[in-house]
Amino acid sequence: MPTPGQPGRMNKPYTPRPQGEHMTISFDHLELAWQMLAAPDKQHRIPDAINALKTLNRTHGPAKAIFNMVAVGAWLTEDGTGSGGD
What we know:
Layout: H1 27-37, H2 46-60, H3 62-77
Helix pairs in contact: 1-2, 2-3
C-alpha cells in the first residue's frame, strides 16, 4: 500500500468515472475552439471566461462549470443579428 509521499493512489482524490459516453476537453482546447467560433467583437473576453470557468470548476464542481461553459459558448457565438425570420 502506498504511503504519503510515494506515487500512488493516496496522492490523488477519488473521482468516479462517468457512466456511458462522455467527452473530455482541456481548457486550452476549449479556448482554441472559442477563438475560432466567437464573434470578432467578443474574442478579447475569452481569457477571462476561461479563468472564470477554471475557478467555478474548482469551487463549485464540474456540473456548474459545464453549464456555464455552454452558456458562455452561446454568448460568444451570438453576433447580434438575431435568429432570422424578422
